[in-house]
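#lab-general

N.A. 3:47 PM
ok so I finally got the sequence cleaned up, no stray characters, all 147 residues accounted for. can someone with queue access submit it? mine expired

B.Y. 3:52 PM
send it over

N.A. 3:53 PM
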Amino acid sequence: MDQEPQNISVDTIYNYTESHIKSLEESITRIDARFSTFIGFSGVLIRIALDLKNHSVIRFLVCLFSVIVIIIGALGLVAKQRGSVLAPSALMEDKYFYETEVYQKCLIINDRIKLTEKYEEVIKNKGLRLNWIIWCFTIATILWHWS
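B.Y. 4:20 PM
back already:
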């Protein structure tokens, strides 16, 4: 297949890649919202646990697991570079500017594929953190309920 890719095929791949990136970005945003929610509920749980008078060990454990949730959640929310993107100014350089539109789109698609791999890694790491948050929050809630 030494032929120039057809513009229709490139357009399809380009549009699919862009929609896939948008979907991944939305997934990251949803996970970040869950981190924030658990951080907020953990703060409330700490406040409630501090009011436990006769259960110092349980109070300590509830606060400990809640603080762990807050720390993991905060680490999950820390801004990280999610991946570099081909700058539009690079496409204005002579070596790309005079290329065909199909070539330019293929260049962008290849760059976006790398970005999707980085996003998928971010989602995987955030998902693992979210699982730890859920377990710690569940333990803290059960301990508080038993008090």
